[in-house]
Every structure is written in structure tokens, then in C-alpha cells.
Design brief:
mainly alpha, AhpD-like, 8 helices, 61% helix
Length: 159
């Protein structure tokens, strides 16, 4: 596989600072970093973004995540490794990513379970994170960015 072009965000340097500011603001929220990374990985799996799945796995590993949990993200409903709060975040991520799959894309039961585990500022962070990951996935899939093609250490720290 070959990338169609460089990542559009790198071709428009003026967008990088606002992107990293958004990511950094979300990461400063009360949502645990591992939960955000699990949501990133699951959203990227749904969208078929190998670049982001690879990046997410590296970030999870760096944060000390276990192989069992990383391997089971795609089947989180059937795996015993996730907390109820993580399950609520993953369900919200799936619903908000698959908007066209059903008439009521984010059903009340999914929303209410997420709201049971996260207060409004944390829900805001989760929703913005899901939206950002979907944006990144669409850019990377459209331009066929290659998994592992960017040195992970070169990525600015947005925590």
C-alpha cells in the first residue's frame, strides 16, 4: 500500500496548532487517558483506519495497557476486561461513529449509560474526542496513510 499524498494536516501547517490544542484540551478532562485511547482504537477499528489503530495500540502500550484488553477492544461486549464506565464510553463511541446505521443513531439507553458514568464536562470531552477521532480517521483513510509511517516519538505531547 502506498499513501495517496502526505497527510493534509502536514501540508497545511496552520491547522496543526488548533488540532493539537483540541486534542490537548480533551486529554486534560476527567476522562481517564486509557479510556480515551480505548475509544480511539475502537472508533478507528470501525472506520478501518490502520494508521490510527496502530497509533492507538502504541499509545495504549506506552500507558501500560495489557495485551488482553488491547486485543479485545473489537469485542468489548463479550470480553470481561472492561469496566462499566469503559463499556459506556465504547458504546457511545460506536453509536456516534455509526450514525447512518440506524434511525436513532445514539439511542437513549446508550446515552443514559454514558451519563451515569460521566458528568457533563466528561461527556463533552468524550463526544469531542469521538468526533476528532472520526475526523482523523476520515483524513487518514481517504489519503491512505500507512500504519507505522510516522515516528511515534516525533508526535507532540498533548497531555
Amino acid at each position: 500500500m502506498k499513501a495517496r499524498m502526505k497527510n493534509p494536516a502536514t501540508l497545511m501547517p496552520e491547522v496543526m496548532q488548533p488540532i493539537f490544542a483540541l486534542v490537548g484540551a480533551v486529554k486534560k478532562s476527567s476522562v481517564p487517558a486509557r479510556t480515551l485511547e480505548l475509544v480511539h482504537m475502537r472508533t478507528s477499528q470501525i472506520n478501518g483506519c490502520s494508521f490510527c489503530v496502530d497509533m492507538g495500540a502504541r499509545e495504549l502500550k506506552k500507558a501500560g495497557e495489557t495485551d488482553e484488553r488491547m486485543f479485545a477492544v473489537a469485542v468489548w461486549r463479550e470480553a470481561p476486561y472492561f469496566t462499566d464506565a469503559e463499556r459506556a464510553a465504547l458504546a457511545l463511541a460506536e453509536a456516534a461513529t455509526r450514525l447512518s446505521d440506524r434511525a436513532d443513531p445514539v439511542p437513549d439507553d446508550v446515552w443514559e449509560e454514558a451519563a451515569r458514568h460521566y458528568d457533563e464536562p466528561a461527556l463533552a470531552a468524550l463526544i469531542l474526542h469521538i468526533a476528532l477521532v472520526n475526523c482523523f480517521n476520515r483524513v487518514n483513510v481517504t489519503t491512505r496513510q500507512i500504519a507505522g509511517s510516522v515516528k511515534w516519538e516525533a508526535r507532540p505531547d498533548t497531555r
